[in-house]
Each structure stands twice: as C-alpha cells, then as structure tokens.
Amino acid sequence: MERAAVFDVDGTLVDTNHLHVTSWWEAFRQAGHRVPMHAVHRAVGLPSSDLVARLLGGDRDTGRDEELSAAHKALYGQWFDRLPAFADAGRLLKRLHRDGWTVVLATSAGGTELSALRRAIDADEAIAATASADDVEEGKPAPEPVEHALGLAGVPAERAVFVGDTVWDMRAGERAGVRCVGVLCGGIPRADLVEAGADAVYDDPAHLLASLSEGPLA
C-alpha cells in the first residue's frame, strides 16, 4: 500500500523561523507596534492574518493587516536567494522517496517564496506534490493543509506521517488523523510539541534521517 510522508517546510526543512521573526518584528515596528520577538516566534507557522490577530489582539485596526503582511513579505523576500536548508533535509526526502514513501510538502508558503524554499531543499525529484497556502481556505492549525496533502498523495490518514516544527503543525496533523513527528530545529520546546500531539520528536532532519530504521518513518 502507498504511504505518505508529509512535511512542513519553514523551520522543519529550511532554517527560516528566525528570519520570519525578524521580518515580522520589523514590519510591526515600522507600523508603530512594539511586539517582543519571543512572542513573534511562538506565533510563526500561523497564517499571516492569524499571526497578526494573535499578536495585536481583536481591538487592532484590522484595516492595516494586509499592510503588515505585505511589509513582512517584502522584508523576508530579501533572503530568498540564500535561504539555508537544514543539514540532510534534501537527503531525508530523497531517502524516503527511495524507500517508497510519497513525499508531499504542506506549507503556508506559496508563489516565489515556495520556489525559493524548494531551491534550498534541492530535492525536487523526491517531492511528489505540494499543498501550499494557495490551495486551502484555512491554514494550520486547521487540518485542511494536511488533508489536502493526503488528497494529493492519494493516501488515507492512517497511512501517513506528518513532520513539523511548531505546535500549529502538530495540532493540524492530529486533527487530520495522521501520526505526528516534531523536530526541535524550529526552536519550539519538546514538551510543547508532545503536548500538541507529537508521537516522536527529533533534533532536526539529520537526526530523523539517522533514526529512520526505528521511528515512525521506518
């Protein structure tokens, strides 16, 4: 039977979380908001509108949400030509592909941002499909991105594993009914990932690759 390995990208395969934090922090600063970087970090992984709502609250001027999102996108876009993949991220996807897994990306990125991330990973031959922000109505922690990824893979939830780095990833995977694997390279504590639904937690893609023979992706 087919089986699917679904991967988040930012903070999971590519070392971008702190670039997002800095870009969001500067976007908020330019708009006159003082938002601590640690608070931004905990919100990374949410769709832009949800991130802004979480950090600025319901009484904010919602008419400026798109302006904030555009500022973040422009600031973050300065890094597109040098986004760093985590060690062995591409090797992990290629190994899973060789082992018979259908590899699908489930990410809030889209367009040129997604293209930049895929260039960084450098494993296009192993990636069967991508469920991006352009394809779904609701982002994580809603299950829709993971469910869409499963649909692209043609695999039921019980035959899939979802790998991510945030509590939003774990909650999305759990709600979609898949086994969840967390990685610590995005900067979220192990205990938080486990509480959110992670069945197993690894340091990073290299650690997961080295542990394939005994983990959920065996």
Report on this model:
The chain has 218 residues and is of the alpha/beta class. The relative contact order is 0.18. It is globular and about 50 Å long. Helix content is 44%, strand content 13%.
What's a concise summary of this model?
The protein is an alpha/beta fold and 218 residues long. The protein has helices at residues 17-30, 37-43, 48-56, 65-77, 89-98, 111-121, 144-153, 167-176, 190-196, 205-210; strands at 3-7, 101-106, 127-131, 160-164, 179-183, 200-202. It contains ten helices and six strands.
Mean pLDDT: 96
Structural class: alpha/beta
Helix count, per DSSP?
10
Percent range for β-strand residues: 5-15%
The percent of residues in helical segments reads 40-55%
Q: Quote the distance from N terminus to C terminus.
A: 15 Å
Order of helix and strand elements from N to C terminus: EHHHHHEHEHEHEHEH
| Uncertain stretches | none
Radius of gyration: 17 Å
Adjacency order of strands in the biggest sheet? 3-2-1-4-5-6
Described by the principal axes of the CA atoms, the overall outline is: globular
EC number: 3.-.-.-
Keywords: Hydrolase
GO molecular function: hydrolase activity
InterPro entries: HAD-like_hydrolase_sf, HAD-like_sf, HAD-SF_hydro_IA, HAD_sf, PGP-like_dom2
